[in-house]
Amino acid sequence: MTGIYRAMAYGILFLCGLISGGFVNVCADRLPKRESLRKKASCGSCREELRRKDQIPLVSYLLLKGRCRSCGARISVRYPLTELVNGVLYITVFMANGFNLMSGLYCLMTSAFLVISIVDEQTLEIPLPCNLFLGTVGILACILDFTNLLEHLLGAAVIFLLLYALYFFSKGAAIGGGDVKLMAAAGLILGWKKILIAFLLACIIGSVCHLIRMKVSKAGSVLAMGPYLCIGAWICALWGDEFLHWYLSFLIV
Ligand SMILES: [Zn+2]
Question: Where is the domain boundary, 44, 69, 99?
Answer without folding.
Answer: 99
